[in-house]
TrEMBL record:
NCBIfam families, per database record: PEP_CTERM
Upper classification of the organism: Bacteria, Pseudomonadati, Pseudomonadota, Betaproteobacteria, Burkholderiales
UniProt domain Ice-binding protein C-terminal: residue ranges: 152-176
Organism: Massilia frigida
Protein name: PEP-CTERM sorting domain-containing protein
Keywords, sorted A to Z: Signal
Length: 179
């Protein structure tokens, strides 16, 4: 009686884990700094995203992203108090494959000064600011030496499946030791 219940519970947890939200951290390292005119091997951008593969096709698309943060700026939902507008305009990710995104942000254009930026993966990250009497900008461009590091963050359902699996193994070992 206990074995069929454990099998049903395992199947339910496995199916809910597939539909559960997944978080992934990422870092790109090594960029060409356009203003300095040199490759900076330690220059990096970082972020994370939360997603649900709603259609189960293995490809995460823009409509399946519930949160996207790049260099501490949130691009899905609320932009933050200092940012006038922001957006994640394009996104795709295949686990084990390429991460593609296009973001943009800007401060209030009617203020004393204005700042903004955009990022197009595989192309460049650019930020700029203008104020009365001055301006500044920097541009980091992808090269063939730019490296992507991605790490999945386990979800609670994953830990639940692990606990259930360990429980089944312990129960099995216990039954074998009694025999």
């Amino acid at each position: 009686m206990l074995k069929p219940l454990l099998l049903i519970a395992a199947a339910v947890l496995a199916s809910s884990a597939h539909a559960a939200s997944t978080s992934r951290d990422f870092t790109y390292t090594g960029f060409y700094h356009a203003e300095a005119g040199q490759f900076l091997p330690n220059a990096s951008i970082y972020g994370y995203f939360d997603s649900d593969d709603l259609n189960g096709n293995g490809l995460i698309e823009r409509s399946e992203v519930t949160s996207f943060v790049l260099n501490s700026q949130q691009y899905v939902g609320w932009c933050g108090a200092e940012v006038f507008m922001c957006g994640l305009f394009d996104f795709s990710y295949t686990p084990g494959g390429a991460l593609n995104f296009h973001t943009s942000w800007s401060t209030d254009p009617w203020g004393e000064g204005v700042a903004g930026g955009s990022a197009i993966s595989g192309v460049e990250v650019k930020e700029h600011s203008y104020w009365p009497g001055g301006s500044a900008s920097y541009t980091l461009r992808w090269t063939e030496d730019t490296i992507l590091s991605m790490s999945p963050v386990p979800e609670p359902a994953t830990y639940g499946m692990l606990a259930l699996g360990l429980g089944v193994l312990a129960l099995s070992a216990r039954r074998r030791s009694r025999s």
